[in-house]
């Protein structure tokens, strides 16, 4: 519940019913040991968690993010790199595998200036070696889909699914992907399977708004034969058009300032503006004139609603599209780390302590995902974390404990799942001892809560 600051975690431990017999300096000294034993801990909690929830290891999702440090100079793992939050501070990079059950599997911490694509294979090799996984499909985004990574998973026992930029395809493949004819809808074997659909004839009513259309063919990208599946979504098209409309509106606020157009990021709204040195009649303009770049807008708009993935699987295209769509889960896990668990900024300094800090965040995320799974995904992350932090008990000397939290749907579900109740008027000391005893019975994962 508080993996961010070791100091705040120690103070929080003072409020627990079973106060650990440690001092604050013990926590910091333990960080080096945690870092050294990280692989063993990850392997153990994976094996233990399988006895509690179903872990789908057939499909593994991999992604990277980074975390900033509020320092001015780089050292060790803390290096200057491309921050995903556009911060000028040194960063460290985290790569993480997550299984198909949305539960984290393993992580790696690398210097902030490391190429993301080089982090996948070493961590995957560790998983294959220590987690005893043999057959799996590795799903990544375009930034991690190097040819080397695809070839590594292009084997008899492993496969890959990775997003593919349509803009970076060869011209003939790009034209085929954007062509409005010969699309399919539905899943093979289902009644709604239809082919030879023309995108321009798609109904715009709400009933068809969530429908996904796709086409596929085998292509050769950098010498590797792979299956290209292109999908089109009217809903995604509307979303991208709305985003662009807002960006154009923001861009127009800069038309009176040509100097502001010299520096533009990839998704900066100013990319839709250009400086015009000639009038519409071809004469030299008296001053620089900033206008909308209609050609740039039209060029980007042609990709609205389209999405592509590459794979070496021969499964149904609709199933592959759905598997890839679930990549958002690992991005959501990074969001939880950064927001709910406050894993940034980091308050430790040495490399071993940094690695141990993120191990504690990883374990907190793992326990949260297991709890979320056991609660049947009925509650949001904010509901679970906030309610857990509010579930405090007050001791009545000689009588027992009384709850200081408000009973609600979450606490009722929690008690039903774990088979005990703490929302009674008074919980006797005997009953509380029995409840605490359950947390020490193997294979309970909570043995790692310290």
TrEMBL record:
<dbReference type="InterPro" id="IPR012337">
    <property type="entry name" value="RNaseH-like_sf"/>
</dbReference>
<dbReference type="Pfam" id="PF01609">
    <property type="entry name" value="DDE_Tnp_1"/>
</dbReference>
<dbReference type="GO" id="GO:0006313">
    <property type="term" value="P:DNA transposition"/>
</dbReference>
<feature type="domain" description="Transposase IS4-like">
    <location>
        <begin position="97"/>
        <end position="366"/>
    </location>
</feature>
<protein>
    <recommendedName>
        <fullName>Transposase IS4-like domain-containing protein</fullName>
    </recommendedName>
</protein>
<dbReference type="InterPro" id="IPR002559">
    <property type="entry name" value="Transposase_11"/>
</dbReference>
<dbReference type="InterPro" id="IPR047654">
    <property type="entry name" value="IS1634_transpos"/>
</dbReference>
<dbReference type="GO" id="GO:0003677">
    <property type="term" value="F:DNA binding"/>
</dbReference>
<dbReference type="GO" id="GO:0004803">
    <property type="term" value="F:transposase activity"/>
</dbReference>
